[in-house]
Design a protein that fits this description.
Layout lengths: L1 H4 L17 H16 L3 E4 L5 E5 L7 E7 L12 H17 L7 E6 L12 H7 L4 H6 L8 H7 L11 H5 L1 E9 L11 E7 L2 E9 L3 E2 L11 H19 L2 E10 L5 E2 L2 E9 L3 H22 L2 E10 L2 E2 L2 H10 L5 E4 L4 H5 L5 E6 L15 H19 L2
Parallel strand pairs: 3-4, 3-5, 5-15, 6-14
Antiparallel strand pairs: 1-2, 2-4, 6-13, 6-15, 7-11, 7-12, 8-10, 9-11
Helix pairs in contact: 3-12, 8-9
The structure holds (2S)-amino(hydroxy)ethanoic acid (HGY) and manganese (II) ion (MN) (2 copies).
One manganese (II) ion binds next to loops.
Length: 393
């Protein structure tokens, strides 16, 4: 499975560009459907474009569901997402080898557009299903080329009129377990697998810095209204404020208009990703960054606007389920994460847990992301053990 996925959507950087509804995404989806068919599982596409592979009756109550996502950030690594999906199929194969008799239906899911690389909002597939992103809001989302989400979906052959909350489907799920590569360096060499305790609250904010386009060679310094200065100062301030708050603030994406070397920019758009262990700290941090941008904007003659594009409150995973997993796996480490996941969205509607596989370098959202094969195999065994425990009673 790994070898088949490896070339799909790989760019010259060695990283992946599997973005919602693009051709690489379509290849990943075709691969998922093929894996389901190869194993004689019932394949389903839900109203939000999430893919499901069922062992047992998809309409029965109390199903045990596992899975993750196959899309990537721009030039993302091979493991973030696909490790969870591949491990799910591999765990099912292992359980079949063990001769496991299931008392409940088991499903493997591939949630669409987890990374939000194209439309700016993460976990679109699971958010729509859980009803935390409305159809109306989803219809307003556009990519960098101005393509609307429903149009992108339609061009890929899906029905955008169908999207919306999928409460009945979620109510039939007894538990959801997502396996994921760890995205920090918390697990040590003798700890291939861990269990998640919580996800930090996090969000994305768009800063628009409106200045005035002008000639780079003739406009006197004192006559300029250069939004690049306000943006640059805001980036530095975000870093400083985050450090003081013991939190994280990152500007990882920027768009410049008109983007000419010999012109002062008219508009800079900078996207802030910010996360903290505590919601109050996060709110206060973003407010401080906003205030600092406004102050600097006044000095530069630049108007600053702030739009919150997405927000995920703190997620504390289901306590009994978390403890059951940790116990079943012989007391593995239980750790929080600053990374967002579909599991975090589902946790509002379904008992949800996560398994992490050791990441020796801690690098993620990068072509350098890596996990040792032995650890990945330990992850499959751990997932199989957990699914067996949950689905056999
Ligand atoms: O951005 C995130 O936290 C996640 O990896 N989607
Ligand atoms: Mn990710
Ligand atoms: Mn992920």
């Amino acid at each position: 499975m790994w070898a088949e996925l490896l070339p799909v959507g790989r760019s010259s950087s060695g990283g992946y560009r599997r973005h919602a509804w693009n051709s690489a995404d379509a290849e990943c989806r075709a691969w998922f459907e093929q894996q389901a068919t190869n194993r004689g599982l019932t394949y389903e596409l839900d109203r939000n474009g999430n893919q499901w592979a069922w062992l047992g009756d998809p309409t029965a109550e109390g199903a045990i569901v596992t899975g993750s996502h196959l899309d990537s950030v721009p030039d993302g690594g091979a493991f973030d997402g696909p490790l969870g999906v591949v491990s799910s199929f591999a765990a099912l194969d292992e359980l079949r080898d063990r001769g496991t008799e299931f008392a409940r239906p088991l499903a493997i899911v591939n949630f669409g557009d987890e990374e939000g690389a194209r439309f700016g909002v993460a976990c679109i597939g699971s958010r729509l299903s859980a009803g935390v992103l409305s159809r109306e809001s989803a219809y307003e989302l556009r990519d960098a080329d101005g393509v609307r989400l429903p149009d992108a979906m339609e061009r890929a052959g899906y029905d955008p009129a169908a999207i919306g909350a999928d409460g009945d489907r979620l109510r039939r799920i007894g538990a959801f377990v997502e396996l994921h590569v760890e995205q920090g360096r918390y697990l040590t060499e003798d700890q291939p697998v861990g269990v998640a305790s919580a996800i930090w609250p996090h969000g994305r904010w768009r800063f628009d810095f409106h200045g005035e386009a002008n000639h780079a060679g003739t406009t006197r310094i004192e006559d300029r209204r250069d939004p690049m200065l306000t943006f640059a100062d805001t980036v530095l301030s975000a870093r400083q404020q985050a450090e003081l708050a013991g939190a994280l603030a990152t500007f990882g994406k920027v768009a410049v208009e008109p983007n000419g070397t010999n012109a002062i920019a008219s508009l800079i758009r900078g996207w802030l990703d910010s996360r903290a262990a505590d919601e109050a700290v996060l709110t206060e941090l973003v407010e401080q960054i906003r205030q600092s941008a406004l102050r600097r904007g006044e000095r530069d003659g630049v108007r600053v606007e702030l739009t919150r594009e997405s927000y995920t409150p703190v997620v504390d995973f289901d306590g009994p389920l978390r403890d059951r997993l940790a116990k079943r796996l012989g007391g593995v480490p239980v750790l929080p994460t600053g990374a967002g996941h579909d599991a975090g969205i589902l946790a509002s509607a379904v008992p949800t847990a996560m398994l992490f596989v050791r990441n020796p370098s801690g690098v993620s959202h990068s072509p350098a992301e890596y996990a040792e094969q032995a650890d990945c195999l330990a992850g499959v065994t751990a997932l199989a053990d957990v699914l067996e425990d949950l689905a056999c009673q």
